[in-house]
């Protein structure tokens, strides 16, 4: 512990003041020019020192302000460096190869052979390393643009020299790790900054002036110190704030610049110190003696000592005054010198710790980067496709007599489904999360929120809402008409986050955010052409991309887009005219919606895999298919031609017609109506649906939707459990077609909802989408239950027969050739292979941080008249 005289200002206050004053401007300065300025001033300092140390070399002085090239060339031979080193430590480089006298020295010293350079430079570097000083690469002298390391090395040597000259006392400026000598203890750097800050604040000297504490009692001082600790985070955060956005390589410059400002400020204050000191003495403020230490308990003794010293000083002063007036001023000068020395040391320690802070800041940057990566990996692990289900509250007075939500779990929803024979069935659907009717807008957004950050990390994100009319898509995405802070929907919240985050990161990265609005009606993009290029993915080149910089920009554009809709004059969304679906078919729609949503949630993103069945497997598959077909034919024959049953070996005459898929005429000859499942239209329908599936090449949710088998009135062709549950039936099958949606590369969010008819489904709201299905439970008529029963039965005869007769492969085999595959009953929470994310080009992080927000317009009123709608 060393005694320390106090000043009416503290190191901490100086540092804080400088950071506040110069920190912000630093963030705005052109670091490149600042860097160049710093580099040249350091180079000049190094050159100046070399000139002084080694004098004239080869008839040519090292220029006092050399360019980078001049500096490098002057040192290229290694002679200057070796000589400088030998001046500081005689004999450090025993043999310096000088330029041969018979060689004409050309200005750049290139006459020396490469070998000579190498010898000198190598000897210099080896010696520097032995001493423990920073070095550079030999090649740095050979190529331009690498002089900074050489400059560092020279300045370290300079500092080392000064340190030597000063008796190896104190600290030296330019880093390096000089080999410890017995007489010199290296300064101890605290790894943890907080204790340092504590000791720093404890070392603060206090006085009445400058708003500092006036109570000199030990206890009150302890209190003051503790309260000062409270200000430490402000210094810490100031430093972090200043360094946060700086590039790693810029941090030393920024820190150096700040430190030199701290030194300047400090020196200035010290200069005016005698005046202050005088005033303080005149005011009879006691001179404090404090002890810098890490432990607060030492503070009390230090102040006790201070009081004793004060008494001694006072006595001394009295004597001085009495006997020798001149002695008084000389004592004062001594005290001031002592004070100056201690404060100076304090500043140097502060500088060291500032450098420690700088290095902590650069490590912090790395941690941030790592954190960003981990964050997005976590998002991947949560699933590339996430489906949330939100149950809308029933309107007052409405009762779901025949179908109700029996249970809502965090990740599942169960419906009670009445059947025709009076029994009740239960159907459970799984999602990433199910929000019950009491869920708030904030809760719904919370699960989606992390994806907004992913957008800014370069991932593509699409959010859309899906559900039948009146199920609450607009409510979820936009909020009610007169929305408030609490009721505002996903799209506004997402936009707010998007702009907030981009603002927060503005010093690190610049984001260009654009909005593109497309009107989609009846699955067609209005007037514009959609292109799919390998470079940009699916895009609409003729649609304007409008730059935006705030939420209000986007909202204004949305309003403009609304006005410009092709159907704007008649397309007012007349909410009052909409039915809220108490219609009997609501239950069917609900189930349809849930089935679709659940199916989407089981889609895994991944690269297309070639279906490489071996020839044997193919052969076996053919055989199985043939056997199935034969067996089914037999069943049919037995069912429809029972007279053959008695003689099973007798070949029925109809057999050839059945085999040829031209059964109707033959069957009609038999005065029987053909079984429904054999109708050619059914076969045709299924074939069309299968062709659709076969054509599927995209995992765009819209494509999945568009290409998914039409249910519940169209049996699926992919042979999975859900498809088997679907049957044909006109009344239930109102929900058969998807509306259109375009996702542009780099798009952020979209919203679309189902068209109950799904045959015409223009966009209904210029809002951003959200993966949410909203369900409405309404009463259904008995007839509907029949259909529902069909829709949810485990399998339909028609499907089985159709599959066996048309020899259609099931999706399980088709999926091998598709980009996506569906899992039969996989829970959506199941972790998906994160590698798949990067295999999908549109989901790979984009090198260019451009975000396009795609939103859609409200749907055509015609569509409203239909049972469902689309957004
Ligand atoms: N979670 C909810 N809480 C309170 N009210 C809701 C909720 N969801 C929907 N509503 C209300 O239900 C009605 C219909 O909702 P909304 O207009 O959002 O449905 P929609 O799916 O967008 O319908 P459409 O497709 O016909 O446009 C609105 O009056 C809305 O305020």
TrEMBL record:
CDD domains (UniProt xref): CH_AtKIN14-like
Location of region: Disordered: 309-332, 566-586, 647-871
Keyword Signal: no
Alphabetical list of SUPFAM superfamilies matching this protein: Calponin-homology domain, CH-domain, P-loop containing nucleoside triphosphate hydrolases
Alphabetical list of Gene3D superfamilies matching this protein: Calponin-like domain (1.10.418.10), Kinesin motor domain (3.40.850.10)
Domain Kinesin motor residues, every copy: 384-581
PROSITE patterns, sorted: CH, KINESIN_MOTOR_2
UniProt domain Calponin-homology (CH): residue ranges: 40-162
GO biological process, one term: microtubule-based movement
Domain of life of the source: Eukaryota
Pfam family, one: CH
Record-listed ATP binding positions: 467-474
Biased composition (Basic and acidic residues): 309-325, 684-700
Lineage: Eukaryota, Viridiplantae, Streptophyta, Embryophyta, Tracheophyta
Keyword Iron (UniProt): no
Cellular-component GO terms for this entry: microtubule cytoskeleton
GO MF terms, alphabetically ordered: ATP binding; microtubule binding; microtubule motor activity
Family to which this protein belongs: Belongs to the TRAFAC class myosin-kinesin ATPase superfamily. Kinesin family. KIN-14 subfamily.
Name of the molecule in the record: Minus-end-directed kinesin ATPase
């Amino acid at each position: 512990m060393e005694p320390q005289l106090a000043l009416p200002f503290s190191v901490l206050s100086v540092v804080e003041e400088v950071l506040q004053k110069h920190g912000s401007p630093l963030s705005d300065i052109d670091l490149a020019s600042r860097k160049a300025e710093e580099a040249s001033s350091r180079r000049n300092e190094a050159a100046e020192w070399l000139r002084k140390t080694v004098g004239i070399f080869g008839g040519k002085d090292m220029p006092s302000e050399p360019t980078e090239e001049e500096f490098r060339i002057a040192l290229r031979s290694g002679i200057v460096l070796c000589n400088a080193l030998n001046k500081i430590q005689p004999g450090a480089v025993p043999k310096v190869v000088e330029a041969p006298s018979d060689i004409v020295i050309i200005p750049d010293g290139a006459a020396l052979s490469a070998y000579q350079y190498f010898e000198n430079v190598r000897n210099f570097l080896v010696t520097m390393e032995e001493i423990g000083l920073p070095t550079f690469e030999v090649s740095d002298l050979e190529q331009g643009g690498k002089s900074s390391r050489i400059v560092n090395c020279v300045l370290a040597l300079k500092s080392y020299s000064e340190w030597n000259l000063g008796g190896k006392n104190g600290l030296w400026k330019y880093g390096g790790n000089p080999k410890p000598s017995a007489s010199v203890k290296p300064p101890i750097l605290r790894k943890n900054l907080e204790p340092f800050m504590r000791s720093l604040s404890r070392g603060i000297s206090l006085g009445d002036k400058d708003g500092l504490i006036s109570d000199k009692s030990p206890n009150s001082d302890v209190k003051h110190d503790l309260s000062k600790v409270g200000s430490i985070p402000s210094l810490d955060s100031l430093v972090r704030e200043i360094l946060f956005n700086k590039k790693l390589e810029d941090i030393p410059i920024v820190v150096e610049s700040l430190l030199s400002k701290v030194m300047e400020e400090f020196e200035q204050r010290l200069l005016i110190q005698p005046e202050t000191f005088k005033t303080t003495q005149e005011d009879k403020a006691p001179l404090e003696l404090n002890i810098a230490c890490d432990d607060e308990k030492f503070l009390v003794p230090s102040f006790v000592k201070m009081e004793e010293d004060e008494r001694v000083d006072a006595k001394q002063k009295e004597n001085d005054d009495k006997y020798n007036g001149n002695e008084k001023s000389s004592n004062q000068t001594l005290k001031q010198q002592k004070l100056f020395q201690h404060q100076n040391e304090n500043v140097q320690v502060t500088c060291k710790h500032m450098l420690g802070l700088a290095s902590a800041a650069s490590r912090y940057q790395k941690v941030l980067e790592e954190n960003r990566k981990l964050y997005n990996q976590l998002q991947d692990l949560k699933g590339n496709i996430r489906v949330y289900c939100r149950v809308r509250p029933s309107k007052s007075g409405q009762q779901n007599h025949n179908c109700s939500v029996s249970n809502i779990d965090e990740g599942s929803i169960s419906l009670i489904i009445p059947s025709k024979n009076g029994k009740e069935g239960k159907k459970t659907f799984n999602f990433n999360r199910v929000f019950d009717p009491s869920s708030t807008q904030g809760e719904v957004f919370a699960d989606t929120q992390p994806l907004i950050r992913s957008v800014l990390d370069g991932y593509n994100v699409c959010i859309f809402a899906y559900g039948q009319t009146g199920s609450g898509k607009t409510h979820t995405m936009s909020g009610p008409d007169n929305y408030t802070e609490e009721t505002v929907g996903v799209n506004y919240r997402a936009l707010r986050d998007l702009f907030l985050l981009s603002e927060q990161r503005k010093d690190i990265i610049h984001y260009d955010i654009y909005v593109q609005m497309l009107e989609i009606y009846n699955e067609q993009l209005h007037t514009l052409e959609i292109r799919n290029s390998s470079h940009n993915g699916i895009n609409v080149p003729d649609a304007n991309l409008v730059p935006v910089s705030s939420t209000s920009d986007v909202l204004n554009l949305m309003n403009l887009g609304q006005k410009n809709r092709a159907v704007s004059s008649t397309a007012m969304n007349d909410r009052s005219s909409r039915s809220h679906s108490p219609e009997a078919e609501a239950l069917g729609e609900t189930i349809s919606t849930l089935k679709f949503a659940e199916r989407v949630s089981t889609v895994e993103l991944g690269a297309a895999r070639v279906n490489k069945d071996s020839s044997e497997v193919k052969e076996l598959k053919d055989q199985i298919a043939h056997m199935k077909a034969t067996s089914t034919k037999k069943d049919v024959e037995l069912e429809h031609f029972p007279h053959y049953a008695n003689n099973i070996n007798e070949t029925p005459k109809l057999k050839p017609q059945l085999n040829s898929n031209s059964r109707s005429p033959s069957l009609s000859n038999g005065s029987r109506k053909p079984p429904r499942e054999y109708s050619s239209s059914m076969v045709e329908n299924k074939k069309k649906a299968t062709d659709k599936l076969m054509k599927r090449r995209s995992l765009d949710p819209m494509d999945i939707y568009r290409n998914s088998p039409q249910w519940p009135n169209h049996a699926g062709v992919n042979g999975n459990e859900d498809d088997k549950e679907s049957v044909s039936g006109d009344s239930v099958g109102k929900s058969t077609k998807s509306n259109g949606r375009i996702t542009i590369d780099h798009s952020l969010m979209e919203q679309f909802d189902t068209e109950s008819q799904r045959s015409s489904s223009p966009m209904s709201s210029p809002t951003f989408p959200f993966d949410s299905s909203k369900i409405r439970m309404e009463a259904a008529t008995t007839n509907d239950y029949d259909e529902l029963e069909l829709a949810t039965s485990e399998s339909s005869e028609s499907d089985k027969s159709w599959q066996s007769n048309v020899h259609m492969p099931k999706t399980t085999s088709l999926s091998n050739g598709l980009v996506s595959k569906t899992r039969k009953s996989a829970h959506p929470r199941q972790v998906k292979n994160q590698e798949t994310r990067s295999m999908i080009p549109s989901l790979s992080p984009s090198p260019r941080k451009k975000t396009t927000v795609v939103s859609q317009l409200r749907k055509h009123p015609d569509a409203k008249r239909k049972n469902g709608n689309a957004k």
